[in-house]
Amino acid sequence: MAGLVLTRCVSRTLLSASGAKAIRIRGINRHYRTTLRRTATTGSGGGAAFLLGFPALSCLAYEAYRRVQSSAVVHALEKEEVLEQADYLYSCAETEKLYQLLLQYKDSDDAEFLWRLARASRDLSLLPNMEAERKKQLVFEALEYATKALERDDKCFAAHKWYAVCLSDVGDYEGVKVKIGNSYIIRDHLESAIKLNPMDATSIHILGYWCFAFAELSWYQRKVAAVIFASPPTSTYEEALELFLKAEEVDPNFYSKNLLMLGKTYMAMKDKEKALLWLTKAKEYPAHTLEDKEVHKEAVDILKKLG
Fold first, then answer.
1. What does the angle CA 255 – CA 211 – CA 221 come to, to the nearest 5 degrees?
2. Where do the H-state alpha helices sit in 92-232?
């Protein structure tokens, strides 16, 4: 049941954290300090990878990069400096360096380090050609760090978001029944993330994708799900649409996948005129990342079919 897999939406694709200063990188709104960036994921529905490319290193950028190379210096840095370096490396898609930097804080009691480490672990697992056993290890490791972040600070919206995403990933290894059961938990944590930060467009988008995934299940898939799980989650296209529109309202044009999902949702609701509008926007969205290119291709294919 492909519709059950949030990973499609959160594939190194979007996600942010708790913070005030917003920086636009790779086409999506990243909230730093307590930020979440679509899983340099991406991506987490699935998932989840927005990379605009690697920024050229300015003198300051090079200095930040150089300092990361020395663990002795890193340990001496204040928390804010380390987080700034982590966010810089994330924006550059330096996944391995980011992971190694944050791994030094795996025993930290600070949720800001832990949710970032969860995200970095997940991003690392999504890298091309990752060996299967190492990928699995990183997926479970990511959930462990996200769980710790949530335990340290249950008021951190990024901790709730990444816990939801990582729990969905782990479900891929634990069977359909567990994954369906976890869907309720995933939804609850996404709702908590939105409640804690109503201005986080990516959390809203992911929840919208969750709704769409269950709304599009066929009667046969629902019947199978009901056999496996007495009361499988349900949703409607109307609920998905409301969330996708809300995400666009919070941060217009923040994510190519949100534009595509608006078009697909209107299609499912038999509103061809609005479907064409949003699919065209998705097609015309600047393709800075691999995911943007995939969105462009899908939008073009759908538009051809619609005539």
1. 125
2. 95-103, 111-125, 132-152, 157-174, 176-196, 201-215, 219-228
- Among residues 18, 45, 22, 41, the alpha carbon closest in space to that of 183 is found at 45
> What pairing do the DSSP bridges indicate for beta strands 22-25 and 28-31?
antiparallel
Please check the confidence at residue 293 and state whether its pLDDT lies above 80: yes
Buried b (16+ CB within 10 A) or exposed e, 268-287: bbeeeeebbebbebbbebeb
String of b and e for 161-185 (b: at least 16 CB within 10 Å)? bbbbbbbbbbbeeeeeebbbbbbee
Chain centroid to Cα 96, Å, comes to 18
Whole-structure pTM over 0.85, yes or no? Answer: no
Cβ burial 130-143 (10 Å sphere, 16+ → b, else e): eeeeebbebbebbb
Query: What is the spatial distance between Cα 210 and Cα 144, in angstroms, rounded to a whole number?
Result: 22
Instruction: Read off φ and ψ for residue 38, nearest 5 degrees.
Output: -30, 105
Tell me how far apart the alpha carbons of residues 24 and 268 are, in angstroms, rounded to a whole number. Answer: 31
Closest to 162 in 3D by CA, of 1, 5, 18: 18
For residue 29, what is the enclosing H or E element?
A: strand 28-31
Read off the pLDDT of residues 222-234 as tens digits, 9 standing for 90 and up: 777 777 776 778 8
Under a CB-based contact definition with an 8 Å cutoff, are residues 48 and 11 in contact? yes
Task: Judge whether residue 186 has pLDDT over 90.
Answer: yes
Strand partners, 28: 25
Contact of 245 with 230, CB cutoff 8 Å? no
Looking at the chain, the number of H-run helices and the number of E-run strands are 14, 2
Q: How many Cα atoms sit within 13 Å of 17 on the Cβ side?
A: 30
**Do the beta carbons of residue 275 and residue 267 sit within 8 Å?**
yes
